[in-house]
Design goal:
The chain has 3 helices and 3 strands, in the order H-H-E-E-E-H. With 80 residues, the chain is of the alpha+beta class. The chain is globular, with a radius of gyration of 19 Å.
């Protein structure tokens, strides 16, 4: 089965066009190699998908004022 179709059918990516774009951008690897959308995927292949940014989220630089619904500082410290 084609890689882009597999990503769509398995619901790892919602649309086949988005799967194509991810493959074209080099964000999908099959068995450690960058794969094109037309790459045939077989049982036992290892897929790696890089979606989103790779930069860690910095929760420490928040405004000093408190608003209703803000996450308590203790919870933010647990996340970092």
């Amino acid at each position: 089965m084609r890689l882009d179709k597999y990503l769509k059918v398995s619901r790892l990516i919602k649309r086949r066009t988005v799967a194509n774009e991810a493959c074209d951008a080099g964000r999908v690897q099959v068995n450690g190699k960058v794969a094109k959308a037309g790459t045939v995927v077989k049982a036992g292949d290892v897929l790696e998908i890089a979606l989103g940014s790779r930069d860690p989220l910095d929760c420490g630089n928040r405004p000093q004022g408190r608003r209703e619904g803000d996450v308590p500082d203790s919870a933010v410290n647990r996340l970092t």
